[in-house]
């Protein structure tokens, strides 16, 4: 991790109201992890036995709010809450309500495994959350349980249906596809999304963290392969490169449905030149790139005796200088990044 003083020391005279990195990319999107804990243990995301961040090192709800406020005041218009499972954090709804009222925040979104949505979907909507991404890798209860280790498919489907009923602006299913496990289900998953008129994106597995369930080289399933399988049932029409706040998914429309099908392809299709985002882990580490370790410690600033929102904002502004140009995921066996996805926030 870089020394924050290196960055806070090199202060420009006036705080800017936009974040621009050294490659002239404007950062407008923050993914904020509110917990590393989860009620599932998805085989591609976590090992069976996980050590979580000690409670004392986890940012408080107030510290998370300060970070959200600093970013919005620096021109970040979209924040996605993630984790771990964001909806199992104690009192997370109080943070979400406050964030929903932040001036300058155009879009509040959340990524969830859906386990708590049946209970919380209406409250999330009322608190200003506009977009919800829900993970769903299989429609077979036994396979779903295997992939998530603890998940209950009926509960997640009920959560998705509660989200649909709550009327969010956008709902997207995220499915990580592993060869030999769930690649045979992609057409059924598209049908599931079409029935509900919601979007679905298929994600290539990323080499984050040392997992014990499978060899990622053997389970790799490329987006191109999936696209061919789906297009044989539903002709897909490309929407072009991701724009604005949208993520790295390449989206396709279908003439007979409002649903769109997306592919997130960190291996086979690199969108780093369009990157508009940074991440903050629940320990307060500002990660400048998902696939690199470049980061600075915001918690040290938040817990410093001389803390001020301005100091926090300067650290964020100056950190833009170390945002890397791109990641270099390849298909080698060893994870290039040892942190697990539940730390990074998807
Ligand atoms: N618990 C929530 C969930 O599952 O949606 C939010 C956090 S989870 C880390 C965010 C997203 O990352 C999920 O869609 C999950 O499928 C995806 N993910 C986790 N590990 C991954 C990996 N190794 N490669 C690609 N996607 C991964
Ligand atoms: Fe939990 Fe989401 Fe990771 Fe699955 S993908 S273990 S639900 S954080």
From TrEMBL:
Name the residues that bind [4Fe-4S] cluster 2: 272, 275, 289
Q: Which UniProt keywords apply?
A: 4Fe-4S, GTP-binding, Iron, Iron-sulfur, Lyase, Metal-binding, Molybdenum cofactor biosynthesis, Nucleotide-binding, S-adenosyl-L-methionine
Can you tell me which residues bind [4Fe-4S] cluster 1?
Answer: 38, 42, 45
Report residues binding GTP. Answer: 31, 80, 111, 172, 277-279
Q: Does the keyword section mention Ribonucleoprotein?
A: no
Q: Required co-factor?
A: [4Fe-4S] cluster
Pathway where this protein functions: Cofactor biosynthesis; molybdopterin biosynthesis
What catalytic reaction does the record list? GTP + AH2 + S-adenosyl-L-methionine = (8S)-3',8-cyclo-7,8-dihydroguanosine 5'-triphosphate + 5'-deoxyadenosine + L-methionine + A + H(+)
EC class (word): lyase
Q: Its domain of life?
A: Bacteria
Domain Radical SAM core, which positions? 22-239
Question: What's the Enzyme Commission number for this chain?
Answer: 4.1.99.22
Q: How is the cofactor bound?
A: Binds 2 [4Fe-4S] clusters. Binds 1 [4Fe-4S] cluster coordinated with 3 cysteines and an exchangeable S-adenosyl-L-methionine and 1 [4Fe-4S] cluster coordinated with 3 cysteines and the GTP-derived substrate.
Q: At which positions is S-adenosyl-L-methionine bound?
A: 44, 84, 135, 206
Asked if the record carries the keyword Iron, the reply is yes
Q: What is its biological role?
A: Catalyzes the cyclization of GTP to (8S)-3',8-cyclo-7,8-dihydroguanosine 5'-triphosphate.
Family per similarity comment: Belongs to the radical SAM superfamily. MoaA family.
Family matches, as PANTHER family: MOLYBDENUM COFACTOR BIOSYNTHESIS PROTEIN 1, MOLYBDOPTERIN COFACTOR SYNTHESIS PROTEIN A
Subunit composition and interactions = Monomer and homodimer.
Record-given protein name:
GTP 3',8-cyclase
- What organism does the record attribute this protein to? Candidatus Seongchinamella marina
Q: What is the lineage of its organism?
A: Bacteria, Pseudomonadati, Pseudomonadota, Gammaproteobacteria, Cellvibrionales
